[in-house]
């Protein structure tokens, strides 16, 4: 690696300070000991990781909106709670196994951040998992454990698009919201 390239990467540390803090936090949690040595060691290892393994720049129009973000977290908590009981009931109830299925959902916006957050939240809710994500087209393919109990393919699409809308309202910039016709000021 050339000295100029290394210098550019080291200067990136100023931009990536949140990443450094998160990685150092993970380091401290993994060691299970909050000491000065672990904090300094975590920051050093984090800086080394950021310099040696730089992430590509994400061109995203993102803004964190506190109230929609709290709504997103609230809906997520309720969904996880309810889905956990539904999956437990499906596992222990007598009778035949429910009919599972794969459902394709085309998101309104194939933005990397929105696609990733929507896919991650969908996969974290029990009973559904993203089996494929097509970045260019903005398609998510979901495996749904109980297709009939989830309202069929249309019900799954509806809930996934509602989740995408909550993600957009929580993270998308004004231009992106206007482009997908949600408007920054309107709540839905």
Question: Can you give a write-up of this model?
Answer:
InterPro entries: Cation_antiport_E. There is one protein chain. The mean pLDDT is 86. The protein has a 3-stranded antiparallel sheet with strand order 1-3-2, covered by helices on one side. It has helices at 3-11, 17-31, 36-52, 66-92, 112-124, 152-171, 174-179, and strands at residues 101-106, 128-134, 139-144. It has 188 residues and is mainly alpha-helical. 57% of the residues lie in helices and 10% in strands. The protein folds into 2 domains: 3-52, no CATH class; 66-179, no CATH class.
Low-confidence stretches: none
Structurally, the number of domains stands at 2
The strands making up the biggest β-sheet line up spatially as 1-3-2
From the alpha-carbon coordinates, what is the Rg to the nearest angstrom? 21 Å
Question: What can be said about the biggest beta sheet?
Answer: 3 strands, antiparallel
The secondary-structure class comes to mainly alpha
Mean pLDDT: 86
Number of helices: 7
Q: Give the overall silhouette.
A: globular
Helix content: 55-70%
Order of helices and strands: HHHHEHEEHH
End-to-end separation in angstroms reads 50 Å
Note the beta-strand portion.
5-15%
DSSP summary, beta strand count:
3
Organism: Isoptericola variabilis (strain 225)
Protein name: Multisubunit Na+/H+ antiporter MnhE subunit-like protein
GO molecular function: monoatomic cation transmembrane transporter activity
Keywords: Cell membrane, Membrane, Transmembrane, Transmembrane helix
């Amino acid at each position: 690696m050339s000295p100029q390239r290394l210098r550019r990467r080291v200067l990136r540390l100023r931009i990536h300070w949140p990443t450094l803090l998160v990685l150092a936090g993970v380091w401290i949690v993994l060691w299970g000991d909050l000491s000065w040595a672990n904090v300094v060691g975590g920051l050093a290892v984090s800086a080394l990781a950021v310099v040696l393994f730089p992430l590509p720049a994400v061109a995203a129009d993102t803004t964190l909106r506190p109230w929609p973000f709290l709504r997103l977290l609230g809906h997520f908590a309720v969904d996880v709670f309810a889905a956990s009981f539904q999956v437990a009931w499906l596992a222990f109830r007598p009778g035949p196994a429910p009919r599972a299925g794969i459902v394709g959902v085309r998101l309104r916006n194939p933005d990397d951040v929105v696609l990733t957050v929507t896919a991650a939240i969908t996969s974290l809710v029990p009973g559904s998992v993203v089996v494929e994500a097509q970045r260019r087209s903005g398609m998510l393919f979901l495996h749904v454990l109980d297709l009939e109990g989830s309202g069929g393919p249309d019900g799954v699409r509806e809930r996934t698009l509602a989740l995408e809308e909550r993600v957009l309202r929580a993270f998308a910039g004004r231009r992106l919201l206007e482009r997908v016709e949600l408007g920054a000021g309107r709540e839905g």
